[in-house]
Amino acid sequence: MSAPAPDQSWKLTVSDRDNDELTVLLEHWLATRVDADATPRVTGLVKPNGGGMSSATLLFDAEWSVGGESRGGRFVARLAPEADSFPLFETYDLETQFAVMSGVADAVDAPLPELHWLETDPGVLGSPFLVMGRVAGRVCEDNPPYVFTGWLFDATPEERAAITRHTVEVIAQVHAIDEPSRRFPMLAGDGSALRSHFQAQRDWYDWALARDGFGIPVLERAFDWLERNWPTESGADVLTWGDARPGNIMFDGGDPTAVLDWEMAAIGPRELDVAWPIFMHRFFQDMAVRFDQPGLPDFLRRSDVERLYTERTGHAPQDMDWYLLYAALRHGIVMARVWRRMIHFGETTEPEDRDDFVMHRPLLEALLDGTYAWD
Q1: Number of folded domains that form the chain
Q2: For a designed S-S bond to 295, which of 22, 147, 281, 341 qualifies (C-beta 3.0 to 4.6 A apart)?
Q3: Same domain, yes or no, for 129 and 155?
């Protein structure tokens, strides 16, 4: 068995807890959170298939009454991974995510979902979770990737250019938040923010792969290259979104309605966020080319993203070759851990060549060799 073709939807093992059971548990939990006349009623609970790989998501509606008046709404619960789920990350800090989202919502007018509750007791649903308002809109799907099918694939070049512009504008808004270390002390540290960020990736790689015998040579080459070519650190550090890309923005037509997924937020150089959506699109675009499909070569072009960011902020991104390779390394750890997870659950087998754990191996190798052609 091998990994599924990237133009097909990946089937990943998630919590097998029954939806009816989750519905009852949520109803009893909501009764402790809202001053309702009777136990709230939860309906329509589903686990979406197209979401991220790092946590579980529940969509549900809830209604209750207070003093005879009807209350309720449409909600999203994001659950930390359960201990036996072979998680992508060693720790999953929902309290920090909740605090970051709250702080961003207070500081800028970027559209973040309304935050309702944070539950830190894992005994309620099996792991801690947060609940936010459910926002109408559509996303650029990862599973299967938007370069093969979907509304963005069918959009006009002008419409895709608008999505690129909106994505850069959200990134710029986040970076404009002043005094990020004071506002987000849970993300602040001593010394170089980039060095701390880099060390965190080394520690993650060690935990996720190397420590128990799954070292990946091409990822270790990337760590070494990055050390040898360390960039000049210039400019003040900013709050970085972390997983900055249109796949984490909901759109109504062409307008953003919600900015999602803050689990990778950090304080560091702004180039971390500028490089990430460029690399992530090329990861998907190279898949399409490999399958003899056109993909979307006009979307999230490196030159366009860098130009738009400079126009919006007055800051011309620096050392972007370094940051793009760093993005490829970071995502390589993600994909290798995902493959290991699939092996753990019997969904695939180990490849003969360890470097094939990295789905974008050719891209990463070309970046290391200085032969990758952008735009």
Answers
A1: 2
A2: 147
A3: no
Helix (H, G, I), strand (E, B) or coil at 73: strand
Q: Which CATH number covers residue 89?
A: 3.30.200.20
- Do the bridges between strand 56-66 and strand 115-119 make them parallel or antiparallel, or are there none, so unpaired? unpaired
Percent helix, percent strand, percent coil in the chain, to nearest 5 = 45, 15, 40
Residue 59: give the domain boundaries.
Answer: 19-133
Active site residues: 243
Is residue 264 domain-shared with residue 159, that is, in the same domain? yes
Q: Rounded distance, CA 207 to CA 63, Å?
A: 43
The pLDDT tens digits of the residues spanning 63-112 come to 999 999 999 999 999 999 887 888 889 888 999 999 999 999 999 999 99
Residues 51 and 49: their CA atoms lie apart, in Å, by 6
More confident residue, 327 or 5: 327
Name the CA dihedral angle for 151, 153, 154, 158, rounded to a multiple of 10 degrees: 100
- Amino acid in the structure at residue 173: Q
User: pTM of the full predicted structure?
Assistant: 0.93
Domain stop point among 133, 167, 198: 133
